[in-house]
Amino acid sequence: MPKGRIMKALSGFYYVESDGNLYQCRGRGVFRQRKVTPLVGDFVEFEISGNEEGYIQVIEDRKNELVRPPIANVDQTIIVSSLIEPVLSLNLLDKFLVMVEAKQIRPLLFFTKKDLLTEDELVNWMNKLNYYQNIGYSINFLSAKEEDLDIKLATYLSNKVSVFAGQSGVGKSSLLNSLIPGLELGTNEISESLGRGKHTTRHVELISYRNGWIADTPGFSALDFQQLDLEDLPICYPEFVELSKNCKFRGCMHIKEPKCAVKEAVDNGEILAERYDNYLQFVDEIKQRKPRY
């Protein structure tokens, strides 16, 4: 059977690229019985049933998968945030990072609208962003109007499957339209009353770009922790992982335990207080969520 990768999922059809051709496929009934759904990014084996049509027979093992957006085998997530209009939410940024870290996907942080900040605002944000850089995250600044945008991003996107994510209204679609002329993803004005934009994309699709693939994905800004167990939350914080070696108790959750190296680092100003507060909020969210069945 021929092999390929699912490039797009739309209305019950899966579009599989194989040897330069695109086949419109359906999934076998056995997938539904097993409650397995083919995902964009899946490597599959399929049976050709007609002129560029077929049935997916086998889904190969995934190295990772996301539920929202539904996509598999992702190499990295490009998290796009604006510093203003809408204002950067570190709470939302930390949620993105936890979600990506939990799936062992590499996050790259890109920030837009830096030029709209006052000098004082810029100093304030740079102090916080330097913290993220110091704990190992890649920090980059972009404007969708820059002529060298393609050159700046090519280094990061070549030969990778990249998911673009971020708060609505931060300019993801504009950014992708700049990268791929003719793509013409819909963009909406930011709602001033809500302080955020509206989703305009309707499906997940991998788009070929510089020997790699990029995806614009709806629904990524609606995040919850349904897929994350409480004891796994601390390991989604790289600075906690390093410090936890000095905690008195193995498996320390860094909340009320005595002789906790993480809490000491917060008190000493070594850990950004706002990021630790977000961590405590996420702990509460996981504890209060409805049971999974």
TrEMBL record:
The keyword Zinc applies. Keywords: Cytoplasm, GTP-binding, Hydrolase, Metal-binding, Nucleotide-binding, Ribosome biogenesis, RNA-binding, rRNA-binding, Zinc. Transmembrane segments: none annotated. Binds 1 zinc ion per subunit. Zn(2+) binds at C247, C252, H254, C260. The keyword Protease does not apply. InterPro entries: G_CP_dom (IPR030378), NA-bd_OB-fold (IPR012340), P-loop_NTPase (IPR027417), Ribosome_biogen_GTPase_RsgA (IPR004881), RsgA_GTPase_dom (IPR010914), RsgA_N (IPR031944). Its cofactor is Zn(2+). GTP binds at T112, K113, K114, D115, G166, Q167, S168, G169, V170, G171, K172, S173, S174. Belongs to the TRAFAC class YlqF/YawG GTPase family. RsgA subfamily. Monomer. Associates with 30S ribosomal subunit, binds 16S rRNA. HAMAP family: GTPase_RsgA (MF_01820). This is Small ribosomal subunit biogenesis GTPase RsgA. It comes from Gracilibacillus marinus.
